[in-house]
Structures are given as structure tokens and as C-alpha cells.
Amino acid sequence: MINNSIAIKSASAVSSNSPVIRTETPELVKLIDLSRCTGCKACEVACKEWNNLPPDKTENFGSMQLHRSLTPTTWTMVYFNEAVIDGNVKYLIRKNGCMHCEEPACLIACPSPYAIVQYENGIVDFNQDKCTGCQFCVSACPFNIPQFDSVSNRVYKCTLCIDRIDAGLPPSCAKACPTTAITFGEKHKILSNAKTEIKKLVKRGFKNAKLYSPKGVGGTHVMTILPYGNNTEDYSLPKNPEVSPLTTFTKGPLAVFGGLFMGLTTLGSFVHLITAGQSKVPEDLAAKEGKEEGEIDRHNLATRIIHWTVAISAILLIVSGLSLYSPKLFWLSNILGGPQSSRFLHPWIGVIFLISFGILFIKWLKDMSIKPYDIDFIKNIYSYLIHDEKNIVKSDKFNGGQKLVFWCFSAGLALLFISGLFIWFPGFFGSFAARSGLFIHELTAIFLICAIIAHIYLGLIAIPGSFAGMITGKVKSSWAKFHHGLWLNNIK
User: Fold this and answer.
1) What's the pLDDT score for residue 488?
2) Are strands 222-226 and 28-33 parallel, antiparallel or unpaired?
3) Secondary structure of 416-475 in the HEC alphabet?
4) Residue 315 placed within a domain
5) Strand-pair partners of 85
6) Which residues are catalytic?
């Protein structure tokens, strides 16, 4: 739960900070001196007790660790690693937990307003009440700290005991440490002490001792003195961690590009309606020929049911997906019952969409094969858009434009499915795959949403008769002759 008595410096998915309640808040830092750490695990016990966290199942895997890594109910733990340094086997002990980055990747990646906040004192905190369970923070963190709980559908991590700090107390782990390996205080004082301790280590023979506070994340508010500073990765720490460019681009320029592209597609549809208007040619053609309007079966009941299943699931996917895509559209999540339910339903709706489109793909596969006249249709698409009867290339059951959209949509759906799996299960596929998947997923979704906007406009407004054909399954003969003359000739 967010501590409202401390000033917030920045928050996830918001462009402005909350009103400052306390001003001139000093930056606070926790220093972990590994040369003093004995691996007693008092910090683990203190964290569990203060935060009322239940025990996790232990595992014997040839290590002094209780289990392999952090969990949703274990926010700090002592790691034990064996490493060969200068020809000798060393037992490296390190307390692991959230680094409280100055530039937190988790906060940048989070789509939910105020689900993650960074206080003026540097502490990064999670608000589980606003967490959607999207796990974007899990894949964004270069230290693999946030832990997803599949039961509560929330993500958890160390809060640096923000409630204790607000009361003027140190974090519980620092309080419990019997060797003063963990100290806490104002940043300038802690840095001064760290420099002194590193100088002492160098004199003792640890010539590569250093302070670990990587610049790639703007520095951290949990700093670690590494006696063997050149062996960062042997401590299970990334050597040069940084906020992934994929994360910053996906949540920055790509979001702007997507909004602009979708807006232009909508505007383009409106401009087309004003300039070209609706297609009136079929009715005019029938009147000129003096023929009565007969009706032709175009789509059977099964096809229509499958099509509308695809259409409805696509709309629901767009609504739930856009709520996670942009903070400005986060309100859309309320349509599906709120942020948590919207995020939970999104992938399952995607499964329904995938299955229904797969059935439609099989039913239409033969009709969607691209023929030479379809290529000519695409080359001369302008005539179709301006309803130029004389120059429109005759089409089969589906015209060249529809076939092109169908195949592009099929390829896009494959990309959405694969990338969606990467996002849905970041723990299985890994952080890089999840970050890449999110970028591919959003980029593909932008183009498909634009295609859907155009499809809805053409079928519902620009080409009268198309929508009715998918509702009743029947179209007028004049409509069929103008739009799909080859198909009409084949069925006669």
C-alpha cells in the first residue's frame, strides 16, 4: 500500500506527481557491506516477521540457500555462490532484494496509474491494490526482482520498510543485522562511509573492492560493497544493468506513434466519407437495367456465427489491450470490470479469438487464394474507393483488397499469438523474450487495429449492403454484380 504521508517523486502511468505533502526530503540509502556479511539470514527472518510474510517451502539443491530465488512472499534472501577467483575457490555471500533504482524500469513499464511510485527519498514502492498483474515490471527489471503471485494475480517486492522509515526507524533487515553489514541513512553520509570501508578493504588485500550502484539505472538506493568487484556476475549481479531500450521505446515513442497512426486511420475514413461518399452504384445499376432486386445467399449461418465471434472477441481484445497500452486509455479497463479483470481476461479472450479465426481461416482458405485479377484489383484500388464503376476490376467472392487484408491479418495474428505467450509467461520464456514480445505485440496490434477500423468503416458505412450481408447472409443481385461479378457468374 502506498504511503501517502511521503512526497511522491514519480509514479507509473501518470504525467504529473501527486501534491507534495513533505518537502525537502533527504535521499535515503541502504548499504550492504558484503565483507561483514556472515550469511546468518537474520535479515530474512526480520523481513518475514515485520511484513507478516508466510514461510516458503524450502529446497535442498546443494546450497545454503533456503530456496533458489525470491518469491512473492520472500522479499529478501541471502545468496551463496561458489566462484574461482585468482585460482582459489571463494564462497560469495550476498543479500538479494530490490535495488530501488533511481531510474526504475518497473515504474517505466507499468501501465497502471500509481501502481508503482518512487518517493522523493528514493524508495520505489508497489501498490498491490492498483496492480493489474500484467507482469510488465517483472520483464522490465534488469535485476529480476519483482515476483508474480498467481493466486492473488499481483506482483510483490521489497518496500524497504517504508512504514518503518516513515516512523523514523531503519528497515527491519538493517535493525536485525548482528554484524552491521547493513546500514541505513542519508545518501551523502552512507556514500562517505562506503568510501572509507572500501579503502580499508583495499588495504586488507581486496584490491578490486568497489561500490555496486550501476549508472545504467541512474544509481541505486540499495548499494552493495563487493570485496571482489571484478566478479560482479559471480555475486549473481548483472555487470552493466540498464533500463532496456525496448521498454523505454515501447512505453514512449511507440505509444505516441500508435495513437497517431490509429487517429490518422480514423480521420482518413472520415475524409473518404466526405469526399467519396457511400457506394450508390449497385442500386443505380439495377435501375438502369430495369431489373428487379433479387437476393443471393452469400454467407451461411455457421460462417456468420464464426465471423461475429471473431468480431466481438476482437473488439474486446482491443478494449482490454488499449487499456494496458496507454495510460490515457486506462479507463477502458472498466468496461470489462476493472483493471485486474481486464488484464486477466485479455489473454483468454485472445484464445477464443485465435480458435474462432482459425475456423474461419479454414472455411475461407480456398476462397482467399490470390489470383491475377486480384493483383489487378489491388493495383487499381483507387477506382474501387471512389466507386468508379467503369474501371473497377471484377472480383470473385472476395476482392483483392479483402484477400490482402485476410493474409496480413493471418500473419499478424500469428505474431500476436507468439508474442502474447512471451508476455503471458515471462518467467518461462525470460525477460528479454517478454520485453521483445511486448514490443512486437503492440506494434502488430497497432496495424491490425487500423485495419479493423478501415474494415468496419468500409463494411458498415462506405459500402452499403456488406454489413447486412453478414447479418442475414443474403445480398442483392445488383450488389453482387458490382462488387463481386465473377462470383455472381460462377454461382448462376
Assistant:
1) 87
2) parallel
3) HHHHHHHHHCHHHHCHHHHHHHHHHHHHHHHHHHHHHHHHHHHHHHHCCCHHHHHHHCEE
4) no
5) 88
6) 455
Report, as ranges of residue numbers, the positions in the chain whose pLDDT lies below 50: 21
Q: Are residues 19 and 141 in the same domain?
A: yes
Which one of 199, 215, 243 terminates a domain? 243
Write out pLDDT tens, residues 11-52: 998 876 555 545 567 899 999 999 999 999 999 999 999 999
Q: What is the pLDDT of residues 323-349, one digit of tens each?
A: 999 888 999 999 999 999 999 999 999
CB 254 within 8 A of CB 439: yes
> In the chain, how many H helices and how many E strands?
19, 13
Buried b / exposed e across 73-92, counting CB within 10 Å, b at 16+? Answer: ebbbbbbebeeeeeeeeeeb
- Is 348 within a domain? no
Domain extent, residue 60, equals 8-243
Q: How far apart are CA 153 and CA 134, in angstroms?
A: 9
* Tally of domains within the chain: 2
pLDDT for the residue 427: 85
- Does some domain include residue 84? yes
Spatial distance between the Cα atoms of 33 and 282, rounded to a whole number of angstroms: 81
Segments in 276-399 forming alpha helices (H) = 281-289, 301-325, 339-364, 372-379, 381-385
Classify residue 359: in a domain, yes or no.
no
- Output the domain CATH number for residue 275: 1.20.950.20
pTM: 0.88
